[in-house]
Amino acid sequence: MKRLLLVAAIAASLAGCATTTSPTGRRQIVGGVSESQLAQLGAQAFAETKAKTPQTKDAHQSAYVRCVVQQVVAQLPPDWQRLSWETAVFVDSSPNAFALPGGKVGVNTGIFTVAKNQDQLAAVVAHEVGHVYSHHHDERITRQLQAQFGLNVAAAILGGRYGEGAANATSQLGGIAAQTLFLLPNSRTQESEADVVGQQLMARAGFDPRQAVDLWENMIAASRSRPPEFLSTHPNPEARIQELGNRAASLVPVYQQARSSGHTPRCG
After folding, report:
1. Residue of 35, 48, 86, 128 marked catalytic
2. Is residue 20 in a domain?
3. How far apart (Å, rounded) are the C-alpha atoms in residues 212 and 208?
4. What is the domain extent for residue 125?
5. Is 26 exposed, middle or buried (0-12, 13-18, 19+ CB in 10 A)?
6. pTM for the full model?
């Protein structure tokens, strides 16, 4: 009965799903949760991270990151700019950053070891903002709900016919299959899309899009190991660098036009 109730709850949530188009023209299925729920989840996750991880006391670092975020966000449509964008710099040696629905951006101090200048930091920030702008969190949650719905339907059917053991096995094995074959490939697609959107945003903000290549070269140099591409949520680094380089060539005129129009960031 509990399993059937869960199936019914997930089905009700999925009834509100819709098809939309990402900034790059890719078809997306979103709507598993509402925009307000997404913003609430983002705010909650951000608050939890701030509670668990100390923030830098270096005022220059905080101002530096905030400046880059502001320049990138200024290139979004007006309704996106009006979000309550908030930044935090966490004392963490891992070179990482993230952005969450509702306009929350977090950067680890470790990012400064690979982002050597404001353009490279903008490549990181714009990529993460690109995830939010492209509704990737919404899409990801919706797909997970779809996967969970299918697994629970199968488990309910098999459980009724063959017992609880079969139902549990279906849920566990199915979860592994869904994660490997369905959810992870989608995440790689999102990462590639965030590269495209982020590089466009940084160029329009007056940051050099060619510096995204240098950033990822620094990332590779600083990385001792990485999981195989098949099980990775990120594209192959070498292929990623090549794509970033090819795209940068077409975005240089955008960057130059932005600079001539007065978009000359002086963040760090």
Report:
1. 128
2. no
3. 8
4. 2-14+33-260
5. middle
6. 0.78
- Provide the token pair at 114: 């690979």
Tokens of 186: 């989608």
Q: Compute the distance between CA of residue 177 and CA of residue 154 in angstroms, rounded to an integer.
A: 14
* Residue 149 in domain: yes
Domain count for the chain, please give it.
1
What's the token pair of residue 149?
A: 């719905």
The model's pLDDT over 238-252, given as tens digits with 9 standing for 90+, comes to 888 899 999 999 999
What are the residues facing 100 on neighbouring strands? 104
Cα 72 from Cα 4, distance rounded (Å): 46
CA separation, residue 13 to residues 6, 27, 33, 34 (Å): 11, 20, 7, 10
pLDDT for 10 equals: 44
Distance of alpha carbon 40 from alpha carbon 239, whole angstroms = 36
Minimal CA–CA distance to 234: which of 104, 127, 118, 105? 127
Q: Identify whether 128 is a catalytic site residue.
A: yes
Encode pLDDT of 210-234 as tens digits: 999 999 999 888 876 655 444 455 6
Rounded to whole angstroms, the Cα distance separating 121 from 69 reads: 9
Task: Please check whether residue 24 lies inside any domain of the structure.
Answer: no
